[in-house]
UniProtKB/TrEMBL annotation:
The gene is coaD. Keywords: ATP-binding, Coenzyme A biosynthesis, Cytoplasm, Magnesium, Nucleotide-binding, Nucleotidyltransferase, Transferase. It comes from Flavobacterium cheonhonense. Homohexamer. It catalyses: (R)-4'-phosphopantetheine + ATP + H(+) = 3'-dephospho-CoA + diphosphate. This is Phosphopantetheine adenylyltransferase. It is an enzyme of class 2 (transferase).
Amino acid sequence: MKRKAIFPGSFDPITLGHYDIIKRGVSLFDEVIVAIGINADKKYMFSLEDRKQFIEEAFKEEPRVTVVTYEGLTIDLCRKLDADFILRGLRNPADFEFEKAIAHTNRKLSQIETVFLLTASKTSYISSSIVRDVIRNGGDYTVLVPDSVVVKKEK
């Protein structure tokens, strides 16, 4: 039986922290499916197509990483794609408390296990919202994201 994990998020944009969790997830699972959630109420800096392309490009040499987009509950996507695990990264105690509540809810609603990986200390401070702030203010975002993330300059 293939061990498949869904790594859900908005990835607006993917960060080096996400990248690290996905790379380490591949050593634990036969397949890691990066699932970009679509939330109609959220304003994104990057289009869905750009976010998907950033991740696909970052993992083009890793055939066990695939990228999908979805709406609705992550556990429904897990059922649809026959994945028994949800992969999540934890940066700090606040992440743990938030993620724990979601993991308990998912367990109550399904048989899907959530697997937590601690982010590497060198990337634990990075979040997509921090990256977006750096980009908005003209800072060097490239030290926070994989090389595949490119901000198009407005003319």
